[in-house]
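Repro:
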Amino acid sequence: MKLSTQIILAFTLIILLSAADSYTNYRLSLKVNQNSEFLSKSEAVIRNSNKTHRAILQMQSAVRGYLLTNDTTYLAPYYSGIEKVPDFFVEQHTLIDSNTIQSSILDSISILHSEWLSFTSELIRARRENPKTYQFLLDTKFKKHIGKNINDSITEKFKRFEKIEYKTRAHHSEMLLHSLNKARSYSLVFLSLTIFVGICSTAYIVIMITKRINSMVRVADTISKGRFTIVRDFKKDELSALAASLNIMSRRLEKNIQELENKNEELNKFAYVVSHDLKAPLRGIYNVISWIEEDLSGELSPALRNYLNIIPKRTQRMEALINGLLDYARINRKTSPEIVDTNALVHEIAQSIVPREFKLEIINLPELVTERLKLEQVFSNLISNAVKYSKPENPYIEIKCQKVLNYYEFSVTDNGIGIDEEYHQKIFEIFQTLREKNEMESTGVGLAIVKKIIDDQGESIHVESKLGEGTTFTFTWRNNKQHEKA
């Protein structure tokens, strides 16, 4: 499965969980709203019930006060109730439109209240207009507690009405709390699942990608060190294409490097054989010239003797060039790393190369684990180069080192004739020299050998110089710590 597909699936699962969480919370929020609306309406129902009951009780008190005192001022709440109570009943019916039991109780309260109004209106009219009729009503109805029984029934029905309302209200309160708890629980569950799936999918993808990329990095690192391995990758995704390309590159590099090494080996053998075979005729030419000088010394003209003197110098230079070529061909040979005290190594080289009149300073040279022969060749050629191109007066050579990050930086400085900037790159090419071509000791091979060794080690070298102001060669060299630990 492709990485993009896996990532899309992971995100899709997270999105689905989020959508499920949102949908569940939406459904629960609807229930919460319904229960909250009911509780809010229930508060209004209770308030309206209390208000209606209180208005009826005030009407009853007003009637009793009037009947006892015959003072019409007591009837103000009574007449006010006659106007307001019917509106209260209508309002209450609107609030409880879905509850048939409460609606029937409310209707029965309304009927009883109407009966009570008929009874009291008759009493009030008789009290006001006809004392005999009033007395008759007192004896036949009032003293028999007809009004009281009606009021008691109204009170009981109001209690029953409110009891039902409180019971329903308690149920909806429980439902509201239940919905809120469910909403919290579902949110927590979905959030936990989302986080879990997100972390797991992210960790899986990151670990898988990191593991595979690290394997490719290791392969690339081994390839850079000359070991041409391949990536074992059996998945079929975007990284598989990269692994396949890396494997193809590794095989091609292995093939090309092998072919290059074979050609270099053949070229080195050819150079060695040719150089070795060229020495024989050179020695023959030198011997012939010696014999001519010995056997025919009296017969040679001055001009011919001068020519004969030039030939040995040229043959010696040719031999020096051949020896330089042989040295250049030999530098590919590998040797085992060993502990090298560069301070002692440079002192040893300087004793055999640097004349006594030179001022030599060797500063802060470290101990390394490296190929001794290669480092010795580098220092020998650089010190020899400094001696060759020194000035006659106050010659000076300084060799020092400083550690930069995980490698060492060596420098060889002289106060010699210097090098013009246009030759800073050419001097590292084989057979390139700043001296005259007929000078035997300058073959132009030494710096080419240094450059080749530095390049083969994966290091760098550069020159800083101006004509007449001396020269500094700076090169880097690493410590072979793996061998040191072993």
